[in-house]
Request: fold
Amino acid sequence: MSNQFTVYFAGSLFNHKDLTGNALLAQYIQKCSGNRYRCCLPQDVEQHHTSAREIRNELIAKLIECDLGLFNFDGTELDAGMVVEFMLAKFLDIPAVILRSDFRTCGEKEIGGEDWNFMCSFYPRTKIVQLNAIISYQNALEGSQSKEKAIVRYYNQIAELVIENLESVRKEAPLQKSDRKKLEALYQWALIFPGGGIEKWFSNETFVDGIIAAKIQKGIA
Reply:
């Protein structure tokens, strides 16, 4: 069984804080896991000289290929694109970790939900990592001699929490229990229902078979 896994890292990517925060956490996850988990960042995939449809199709293709998903649920309102990516991951039974570092409370807690809309909650093979970003940052700062060292400590702590939950969720039994026929039908449908020519990204007929075989070998599907 392979000991290396790809992780689709979804979240906002519209300002320098989003972009550098995503990149730093992805780097620390790879380093702290000893290269066991390698993040695929949508911000590294998007090419803005292409059309919106082509960007969307390429990102969906990358998500389908990846072994696991990491979804940043920060904000008073979840990023719409990330929600679509999360739901597609759950449609394909891709193991997922939700990360929320936003300390603002919102959502549906009064009726037993989380700090986001309850329609994004309660899915199988999904773990939640929730922390208070400002408290974690200040704790890292107090225990460090410089801001540079505080940032290293800060991201190490977050990465370790994410890795712990990636390890846990990927070991949960697949819903289809390695049923090749059902998995093939599921993945083939995932290439049809979005429309927009996404099936052209998978012009090789054996491509989906290769993805499924690799995920079964890794114990993911």
The chain has one domain: 5-176.
